[in-house]
Amino acid sequence: MTTTLADTWGLHESQFWLRGKHPEKLLEFSEDLGMWNVYGHPEIEAILRDPATFSSDTTRLVPADMMPDADTSTGSILQLDPPLHNKMRKLVSRAFTPKVVADLEPRIAAITRELLDAVPAGDRLELVAALAYPLPVIVIAELLGVPASDRHLFKGWVDRMFESADQVSLVKKDEKQDAAIRRSLEGQQALTDYLGVHVDERREKPRDDLLTKLVEAELDGERLSRAEVVDFANILLLAGHITTTMLLGNAVLCLDAHPEWDQRVRADRSLVPPVIEESLRFLTPFAAVARVTMREVEIGGVTVPADRMLLCWVAAANRDERVFRDPGTFDPLRAENPHLAFGRGIHFCLGAPLARLEGRVALNILFDRYPVLRTIRGEPPKFQVNPNMTGVRELPLTTV
Ligand code: HEM
Fold first, then answer.
1. Segment 275-315, tens digit of pLDDT
2. What structural domains does the chain harbor?
3. How many A from CA of 40 to the centre of ligand 1?
């Protein structure tokens, strides 16, 4: 059996799909987590396309002390069901339009060049600190209209939110889990307070930025409440942080592990988008999305009662042999790539066009500048410790 990228770098042991293994069952109840795990692609796709049966409002099942403060949070768009979700999605889509994203291309290229210009001369590059972390944060901060120079603050808060190495669980475990949840909520609260100040300012003094557009967006005479704008800005800033960072790092890691594709994509840049899509399938940044059953329902021949939490492992589904031929092979030119890395259905990632654009622009500039980008023996990449994520936190590379 060949060594997988996950074995080479010692990725989280629970991420079996990265090691060429298949789940014993497509659906199983985990006593430990108090949730059902779903691993199959058609099953997950059907779940994500049926919000009436599978609600995104997981707050119904999460104990109150594991939740953000109810007074200051409305719950995010991610956790809304129809009809409220449609309303919210329409409103925010008016501010975060395809044109707003497409117009960012020159700025994304300029920021990428500035960041790489600042890398000390030499034959190495730590990709995350140099580019993969700051690029998406600066882009989203500028778009929202908050000072990009505050990014060390966001980083502290966001790191606190994702520092736990334990699996999310509905089963109360120990003090350690409580402390991790507390720290995560503190980080979330600090970010919320920070954004609240900016939202209030925009209400007083509108500017030409996304926060103002969100404050002013209207649907049938209705506007978003202060808490709704803060929550949405919160999601964007969070999503703007870790996701594209993981996408960029993972794409470079995939090319490092598959030098033949590294050569091909450098020679033919039309392959950059398919390389990004295949990296999203091969090393899916967010491994799972959660849903709650609204009624008793049969999934893949198994009956699941009402009011149960489902963890839909999109990362495992992205290696489902029924959908992907040779799922363990990195093949950007596979005939079809219906990966679920950005989800499906009504909650399909709103930031997907931005993530794809940042990935394309940054990879092209990296290829132009560095003829070689390879991992360094004895200096392995460091990964996110959270088992629901696959992405680098540090990626030391040699450029010669
Ligand atoms: C590689 C990068 C990214 C990945 C893998 C990713 C993944 C996802 C997934 C799986 C969902 C669906 C969650 C569900 O169905 O419960 C989602 C939703 C969402 N994403 Fe992303 N995301 C990425 C980048 C971004 C970026 C850059 C932004 C914004 C700047 C963003 C904003 C959002 C928002 C607002 C939603 C909620 C949409 C809704 O509920 O209607 N994402 N993302």
1. 999 999 999 999 999 999 999 999 999 999 999 999 999 99
2. 50-285+329-398 (1.10.630.10)
3. 20
